[in-house]
Amino acid sequence: MIIRPGKNNIIMYNTPLQTVNRSLQAEANAVCIIRQSSENKLRRLNGAEAIAQVMASTIQHDTNKELTEKQLHTVENICNQIPVFNLYFRNDHDIGIFLKNTDLQDA
Q: Which of 21, 39, 75, 91 is at a distance of 20 to 30 A from 7, taking alpha carbons?
């Protein structure tokens, strides 16, 4: 998945599989970093913690300082525009119900 700032929002793009060659995009309302757990829960991340965890989930260009700085700026921009969460989930179907019943803007 690719996430990038738009003019007034954050846009997410799929990365099409070879068998499904259709690019899709939608407005992102939150970033959820998934983690397996014994219970379904959300923990909101703020500031440096949000930026660090989103950066850790990206492909990084450690050998190119300019690209790293640009990427950090983009991640910081995203984290300042939409909420970032650790999404802890059980390995069952209840996570879909949990997310359907959770307003990420108010979490």
A: 21
